[in-house]
Amino acid sequence: MTTAVDPDTPREHLALIGGRGCGKTSAAARLAADHPDFRLLDLDALIVAEAGGRTTPQIVADGGWALWRELEYRVLQRETAIPKPALVDCGGGIVVDFGEDEDEIFSARKVDILRERCRVVYLRCNVELLWSRVADDPNRPPLSGDRSFHALMTQREPWYQRAADWVIEADSLAPDELAQKIAQWFFAPARGGRPAH
């Protein structure tokens, strides 16, 4: 998938995006192990640190998801401004902000940072598969009080597509396979090639 970023613009960071449970963290860990020059940035962990060590459920209880998204923006902006190449493991809501009615909207400010500073891979998974992986995780508070996970993921799908340089169908791929495919794409000599997916 291509979007309107100048292909000659140097973007040395690699960002993984996608819904909860798509395999970003496992693939990022394997990529970082195989390519130690990367700074591995777990945005969720950095947000927790930014909030003084409060857990994700505590942050959301204290300030709602709007507070989390503000901290996410702050951390993303700061960490990707550092020139040393980073591997950014983004939370599922990296493409999300909140409108005046507190409903999710596309986060142009965060996606602009990603598109300007990173090469972005979207790990796309079936929503039912994502739900089966995250439904019972107590460290993942509900994304909404009145909308289902499935509805939110459906709404976010075009936002992930819009943010991505490349979309990889990740349903049936193990972390090792994901890491290998992503590395082959990112380190391709042309750095602009789009492998088949």
Helix/strand layout:
Blueprint lengths: L12 E5 L6 H11 L4 E4 H8 L5 H25 L5 E4 L6 E3 L5 E3 L1 H10 E7 L2 H8 L14 H15 L2 E4 L5 H12 L11
Parallel strand pairs: 1-3, 1-6, 2-3, 6-7
Antiparallel strand pairs: 4-5
Helix pairs in contact: 1-7, 2-3, 3-4
What would you note in describing this structure?
Mean pLDDT is 84; it is low at 1-10 and 192-197. β4 and β5 form a beta hairpin. This protein has a single domain, classed as Rossmann fold (3-Layer(aba) Sandwich). A 5-stranded parallel beta sheet has the order 2-3-1-6-7, sandwiched between helices. It has a two-stranded antiparallel sheet with strand order 4-5. The N and C termini lie close together (10 Å). With 197 residues, it is an alpha/beta fold. The protein has helices at 24-34, 43-50, 56-80, 108-117, 127-134, 149-163, 175-186; strands at 13-17, 39-42, 86-89, 96-98, 104-106, 118-124, 166-169.
